[in-house]
Automatic annotation (TrEMBL):
<dbReference type="InterPro" id="IPR016160">
    <property type="entry name" value="Ald_DH_CS_CYS"/>
</dbReference>
<feature type="domain" description="Aldehyde dehydrogenase">
    <location>
        <begin position="17"/>
        <end position="465"/>
    </location>
</feature>
<dbReference type="InterPro" id="IPR016161">
    <property type="entry name" value="Ald_DH/histidinol_DH"/>
</dbReference>
<feature type="active site">
    <location>
        <position position="244"/>
    </location>
</feature>
<protein>
    <submittedName>
        <fullName>Aldehyde dehydrogenase family protein</fullName>
    </submittedName>
</protein>
<dbReference type="InterPro" id="IPR015590">
    <property type="entry name" value="Aldehyde_DH_dom"/>
</dbReference>
<dbReference type="Pfam" id="PF00171">
    <property type="entry name" value="Aldedh"/>
</dbReference>
<keyword id="KW-0560">Oxidoreductase</keyword>
<dbReference type="InterPro" id="IPR044086">
    <property type="entry name" value="LUC3-like"/>
</dbReference>
<comment type="similarity">
    <text>Belongs to the aldehyde dehydrogenase family.</text>
</comment>
<dbReference type="InterPro" id="IPR016162">
    <property type="entry name" value="Ald_DH_N"/>
</dbReference>
<dbReference type="InterPro" id="IPR029510">
    <property type="entry name" value="Ald_DH_CS_GLU"/>
</dbReference>
<dbReference type="GO" id="GO:0016620">
    <property type="term" value="F:oxidoreductase activity, acting on the aldehyde or oxo group of donors, NAD or NADP as acceptor"/>
</dbReference>
<dbReference type="InterPro" id="IPR016163">
    <property type="entry name" value="Ald_DH_C"/>
</dbReference>
């Protein structure tokens, strides 16, 4: 499955109930994703449950080797995977987009394989001896979103498999073909039954997955309201949970910055994946003394970043993945304009054009409690708020229920660290925003979820701690 045509042929539905997979840049139907049933899900869970003991019985080195072979398979089919991802999700091939995401799948799979997790000796002295082991949980249910459908799926799949679990994954409906393709590529080399996928509506398939007593762990990336539903649905079984939920990340620019020097990093912090990233910069607070210059430099850079159909090699911004998200961004920007906020760039979509393109939009001189500021827009529209008092702006950054990421921008590292320590978030970046490393734990605070992914902590999160004492 090294070509796009071969890959699409392998994963598109040939008969039965199916959902059209639509290119959000053109409106073209590119294939059909099977609409499966709860009975199909139960069969997949039974398959995973049956395969799990033999998978867990392999040595750690054997499971690592399988993951490296899966990473090799991803690499071999990388261009076909990137093209399908671009056509279905909308993100361009180039820039921090489709090829970048597929490459990330390979890297995160290899890192999950290679991260050491030795037995931990807890005490070894005259008081006694105790050590900590990490055992498989069993079957992991993974629910992945539409914004980074392949890479976030890998964040769920790779560590789960490494620790001896088997996986049943349910992807978002609108990017189901992309995840089906990823799973198909990996299953060329993985043992049968270890990695399973079921596609269908969240209200039926997702709900049944979270309620199944045979699922030992749920990993979910998505909205806070759906995360709360998962908590309720899984409670009777005391299912282990990792929830990476909504974010409305704040960035604070201190008065000592060089506006021209930070403009590019500010832009990509906010507009990576056309703003469709949980940990993107979604509200920017800039000190009054540098406000106008920061807005000017950011607009100057943003105006020259090409947006268009993802298969055009020149584009690095694409459409919004679905019309519902387009409508959300449009509603928030329209309300901001009507409130008297200043449109610096964009803000006027072409409603008659094909695709879900919303122009890169910067909104300045906006009230800190405007809906565009306090609601997660999840698209290419950034509100920029002027401030004068540091204590007040830290309060504004912290007052929302979200706490996924945040950032501080300053030429004085000591000052930046001082401000960062006061922000309530799972991650605070200094002079950047949203960068992730496969060895650095990632997750949210407050209603942005709980649990951590990546690195040693990510492996522990998909395992059962077992103390042996004596």
């Amino acid at each position: 499955m090294k070509t796009y045509a071969e890959l699409l042929e392998a994963v598109t539905a040939k008969s039965g109930d199916a959902r059209d997979a639509v290119d959000p840049a053109t409106g073209e139907v590119i294939g059909k994703s099977p609409t499966q049933t709860v009975a199909d899900l139960e069969a997949a869970i039974d398959t995973a449950e049956a395969a799990q003991p033999a998978w867990a019985a392999l040595s750690d080195d054997e499971r690592k080797a399988y993951l490296h072979r899966a990473a090799d398979a991803i690499k071999e089919s990388s261009e076909a995977l990137a093209e399908l991802l671009s056509r279905e999700q909308g993100k361009p091939l180039n820039g921090p987009n489709a090829r970048f995401e597929v490459g990330g799948c390979e890297v995160w799979t290899r890192t999950a394989a290679d991260t050491p997790l030795p037995v931990e000796v807890l005490i070894d002295d005259e008081s006694g001896y105790a050590e900590m082991h990490y055992r498989p949980i069993g079957v992991v249910g993974a629910i992945s979103p539409w914004n980074w459908p392949m890479m976030i799926s890998i964040w769920q799949i790779a560590p789960s498999l490494r620790m001896g679990n088997t996986v049943v994954i349910k992807p978002a409906d609108t990017t189901a073909l992309s995840v089906r393709a990823l799973v198909a590529v990996m299953n060329q080399v993985l043992p049968e039954g270890v990695l399973n996928i079921v596609t269908g509506p969240g209200r039926t398939i997702g709900d049944a997955l979270t309620k199944s007593p045979k699922i030992g762990k749920i990993m979910f990336t998505g909205s806070t309201p759906v995360g709360k539903q998962i908590i309720e649905a899984s409670a009777d079984n005391v299912t282990r949970l990792t929830l990476e939920l909504g974010g409305n990340d704040a960035g604070i620019v201190l008065p000592d910055v060089d506006p021209a020097a930070i403009a590019e990093d500010l832009f990509w912090g906010a507009f990576i994946n056309t703003g469709q990233t949980c940990a993107a910069l979604k509200r920017l607070y800039v000190h009054d003394s540098v406000y106008d210059r920061v807005v000017e430099e950011l607009a100057k850079f943003a105006a020259n970043v090409p947006m268009g159909v993802g298969l055009d090699e020149d584009n690095v911004l694409g459409p919004l993945q679905n019309r519902g998200q387009f409508d959300t961004v449009d509603r928030l920007v329209t309300a901001a304009k009507e409130s008297g906020a200043r449109v610096v760039l964009g803000g006027e979509p072409d409603y008659d054009a094909p695709g879900n393109f919303y122009p890169t939009t910067l909104i300045a001189d906006i009230d800190p409690h405007n809906d565009l500021v306090v609601e997660e827009q999840f698209g290419p529209a950034l509100p920029i708020i002027r401030y004068t008092d540091l204590d007040e702006v830290i309060g504004l950054a912290n007052e929302l229920e979200f706490g996924l990421g945040s950032s501080v921008w300053s030429s004085d590292r000591a000052k930046a660290l001082e401000v960062a320590a006061r922000l309530k978030a799972g991650t605070t970046w200094i002079n950047s925003h949203g960068g992730l490393h496969p060895m650095v734990p990632f997750g949210g605070a407050k209603q942005s979820g709980y649990g951590r992914e990546f690195g040693v902590e990510g492996l522990k999160a998909v395992a059962e701690p077992h103390v042996i004492s004596g």
